[in-house]
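re: ur question from earlier - yeah i can do the single chain one, its not a big deal. heres the input i used so u can compare w yours
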Amino acid sequence: MTGAMSDLDVARQVLATEAAGLSALADSLDDNFARAVERLDSATGRIVVTGMGKSGHVARKIAATLASTGAPSLFVHPAEASHGDLGMIVEGDAVLALSNSGETAELADLVEHCRRFGLPLVAITAHAESALATAADVALLLPAAAEACPMGLAPTTSTSMQMALGDALAVALLTRRGFTAQDFRRFHPGGRLGQRLRRVKDVMHKGDAMPLVTPDTFMDRALVTMTEKRFGCLGVTGPDGSLIGILTDGDLRRAMDPNLLTRRVGQIMTHDPRTIGPDALADEALRAMNAPERRVTTLFVVDQAHVPQGILHVHDLLRVGQA
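and the output i got, formated as tokens:
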């Protein structure tokens, strides 16, 4: 149709409209946000997230994000709450309620339950004078922003702002609580994300599996060790047991001559090899192997004294789904 916007134009306009809403939301944040985080952080029980309709769908996602980032949380449907599920909300819990209008009738019993038992109530709404905002201990107000729907009716920008504000609360809470990548892995043990959060010490080969020699070792013996261990390299340790060098296939090719087998490892090894610590993430090991200045397939794992604790091959990362 002549003059009609293309699908691509519509998509870009929607994204631009929602981006403007998110920008306005960021600019509107004030001390109430910090107060809301304080209230939620004070919960000794769970953070109960609730909302009706589209706000309810957003609330489910916020509850899932909170739960996966160290803040025990659950979603309670406000209509079901009025028919028995209020019993799920107990002393020690805090409630995060979402309603763009702030006048959602189904929230009334849940709000009254919070007041009756003195539970902290944080609201996310667009109207400061609404019933929800005035009943809440802290109201986080969404700024005036156009919905991306051409009729201005379908919840689009408003739900995007709700979702983003929920993410902001979750990240603020995890930062406040010192939530670490290792903590994150405990809640995400499955799938690719869980594998990315493995520690090097969980994947490396250790003990007798490590191909180690001293710099005085003759190359004929060194080649036997390299072949037996099957890592394509040797770690070279000094008198104190620390790693001082590495011997790779590349070093062998560069040193190839008729006298190779009578030479000693220390004469041809590479000094100060790239290493990694046992508590590093597998993801960090992969980045170290793929460093642009020089890619490697193997890393020795060393402690603070630079003593080898294990060896890690890129195939080990492939095996656990990392690479």
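The CA atoms of residues 285 and 291 lie 10 Å apart. not sure if urs matches, ping me
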